[in-house]
Structures
1.
Amino acid sequence: MARQKIALLYVGGSIGMKVNQKSGSIEPLESLNEIHRFLPELQKDVSLEFYSIANVGSSEVTPDHWVEIAQKIQHVYDKFDGFVVIHGTNTMSYTAAALSFALQGLSKPVILTGALMPINDLTGDGRMNLIFAIHAAQLDIAEVCIVLGPHVLRGTRAKKEEHSFLSTFTSPKHPPLADFSAQVDLHPWRTVRRKRSLVCKPTFDANVIMLTTNPGLNDKYLDAILQAEPHGIVLRAYGPGMLPSHLHPWLKRVTMAEIPVVITSQMLRGRIDLHMYRKQLALEQMGVISGKDMTFECAMVKLMWALTQSKSPRRIREIMEKDLVGELRE
């Protein structure tokens, strides 16, 4: 049986570092191809090919990197059975969401992985995560996922939970698509491999701002946001979508200016419901868009993507409130 071919796309992060055995300091790998050297047994069963996209920490990742990753996957798509994107953990949720919207109609998996420690640290998580990710890229899954440890999480649903080997990422609003234990458990709610036509639309409008409501939020900050002329706003509200009354006149100004406003919840497992109370119904009547149960990271990226798909406020609302890649429950 022929070995499956997996492409490794390197973007950056701790996994691309190594511990200098003499000095004990952490430094970049001399060549990113050194990653292959740490996986000798695995390469008996799978053919790996390496592509270098960037070498940046996750805090330096921009939408330009999302575009480059998506375009590289599109360019080599037919050559491989699956893809692994090696990426820093801090912004991995944003990149996973971005690739989910940029690469629709997948017939094979795109797996993001990374590490908290360098790959040659025997007590670290780098080698383990990479092995799990390469195995996940061979499974009967056809969507963008995050794999750090034994769980395969939907990319649009995953959040970084803590700086811990055991639970770096969680998926608070959607269960794992697969689990590695003594055997591989594939769950029926995953998207499975079948023949589809890849649609690559890697375009994002970065002129979107996120605002978190807090007690005592000063109106002058709201005015400063409008002066910056954002193309879209993601607003993190209390509970199921509750906002203080003094925000309503400002929101009316924003929506009258045809700036899309997407409302998400500050609750980890919350869902926006604009029909629960009269004050929330007024938000919907103003034109505020419900983020439903999307994570704020996903809502942010989806709005950046939606703004490049249409200039019509009504169409943008339709895109944001419709489930496209498993990012929300309608």
Note: The chain is about 25% helix and 20% strand.
2.
Amino acid sequence: MKYRMLKPIEVVVAEILEYVERERISLRLAMEQYFQANKNLQPIRGIARAFSLAVLRNYRLLDEICAEYLGLRPKNLSLFKRNLLRAIVYETAFREVEYRRVKKCIKYLKIRSNVFTRKIFNEIREVDPDCLVKKYRGIERLAVRYSEPTWVVRRLMKLLGMDETIKILRSLNSQLPLWLRVNTLKVNPSELCRRLRKHGLDATLDPDLPDVIKISKIGVSLKRLPEYRNNLFYIQNKASILVGHVLAPKPCEKILDMCAAPGSKATHLAQLSNFKAHLTAADISYTRLRFLQNYVRCFNIINIDILVADSRFQIYRGCFDKILVDPDCSSLGLLNHSPEIRLWIDEKFIHVYSSMQRRLLEAALKMIKKNGVITYSTCTFTTEENELIFKEIIEYHDNRVELVEPKPFIGDPGFLGLDKVQRLYPHKHKTIGFTIACFRKL
């Protein structure tokens, strides 16, 4: 629906989050479509994004405040009303807003006028989150305090222990750096870093990867910069960029990206090979491959063949030097970057994903040459989608496949005794949560 008049930011956020919840789509995509339909609201786009992220990262805590002080349970309200209520409560509890602003927004809820009195407003402003959740015990207290699904916290506790779990939960609700992949075929990283600083950005070269810049504070829209329009950099997380360096494409090598859409890793592989490797980018989704087609055109990439295919079924046999398997997963490593997935991620999906991931790895082993290397990566923490699959593959293909250490190795070693597996964590490495493993076919 289009609007001619500027509306309260709380209502804008509620409408965006209503769309996110209803369609179960990413916040990024929801915002893209929302502001395309409401061009007059473009000036508040950046504020709306930051506000939406804050609400998503605190949704369980906000629901607890609503129940405790307002006697309302957002889960029982319509999608629009629950998200508007969360937005109003977030502003009251965590920002310096005036009561008259809250009263103005309450009208959009169309509930009884005395539900949010000045007295209640003042009480919510004094809320101590740690005291609020004291009625809960153990894992549930942490889950409500940091607004994560309870089963996610339980799994983190089992995997990392109490101290590390609390650290990672805090990092999942904090602002992490933004990472840029430099288009080294067009610009030197040091030169780009200097130019970004002139735009007022806190930009520094990454010490681990030669084509990565860290942006600690964002003061301007990156997509409005001439350097972005001229394709001098690509917004991509450091953990994801690391995958390309681990695979390390060489000229004339035949490389397959089995789950290529939307294309960030495939385009990086093309860049790293100076367009001299022979890349095949396959994905089951034609719609998502259109993003890769756009990137190929924008970056003038000449060495990628795009293929719509289900990579679980053998595409070619024994003809690739290197293969990248970056499958769909439970995405628990994205709980900071994409907090909207907290609203619908379900533990039962893990077993569905792990089955698919195992089939993809088996297919990759049929398509890789002898002595070829398969690089496997996921943006999740679970062992079911990582180390447990690796053990099964190695045991089933006894003496025909081995784990090799992914280099550069800048993360932590894996679990279940698999030290050659590399893991990255938000609280340690300031990236999304990520797991990388490499297999050599013997």
Note: The mean pLDDT is 94.
